[in-house]
Amino acid sequence: MWPRQLCTSNPDVRRIIAEKLAAHQDDVVRSISANDGFGFCECANCKAQDGPDANRFRSGHQMVTNRMHNFALDIATQVKKLNPKGKVGMFAYSFYDGIPDFKIKYPGNMYLSYCYMVYAAKDLAAEKVINDKLLALSATGAKVVGREYWGTHYTMNYPLSHSRKIDRKLKMYAECPLKYENGVSFIKTTDCEVGGFLRRQLVIT
Predict the structure, then answer these.
(1) What would you report as the CA-atom Rg of the chain, rounded to the nearest whole angstrom?
(2) Number of neighbours of residue 1 by Cβ within 10 angstroms
(3) Does the predicted TM-score (pTM) go above 0.70?
(4) In whole angstroms, what is the distance from residue 11 CA to residue 7 CA?
(5) Coil, strand, or helix at residue 72?
């Protein structure tokens, strides 16, 4: 096991996490997301779960979307059995922000936060790629959070350049036939008046 990440294929690791999450008698969503960065486990069992991800790379590191969703599905299923009110959360982020290659159906207690930057939607084609991922993740049965970094530190001093993208995204959430939740994260709100405005005006559930 690499020191930065857990061995997500280990049955005991999964059991311990599920038991700890299920022990809480409340409706708080608790995260099982990986640590930021790389250093994912390279044991035979974890790598066997990667499938096509073994040939997908970003910034020189292999993608691990399939193993993370395998892990999340098992945890969510165990938690559901132990505590029907328990909620599980996981980022769909960095090296695991793809769509799993295997058919998956979460048991209704899973929250996936798809993390991306509006900065990446440099044109309508790139924006469609992001929207298609959100729709595909929602098809897993998870409640999807669009965790969009509107006006990040790259362009925070020019917030109005993103206003039309924000408008289109909110309309997509509202019109989507599947359940969406909209999450907003601001890194440097002191430089972004629109950030403060949105935080005051939007009700985030």
Answers:
(1) 18
(2) 15
(3) yes
(4) 9
(5) helix
94-129 pLDDT per residue, tens: 899 999 999 999 999 999 988 877 667 777 888 888
Burial of 11: CB neighbours in 10 Å, binned 0-12, 13-18, 19+ = exposed
Element containing residue 15 per DSSP (H, E): helix 11-22
The rounded distance, in Å, linking the Cα atoms of 100 and 140 is 9
Cα–Cα distances in Å, from 163 out to 24, 129, 132, 154, 168?
40, 19, 20, 15, 9
Residue whose entry in the numeric block shows the structure tokens 């798809």 = 114
Which residues is 165 bridged to in the sheet?
A: none
- Whether the pLDDT of residue 21 is over 80: the answer is yes
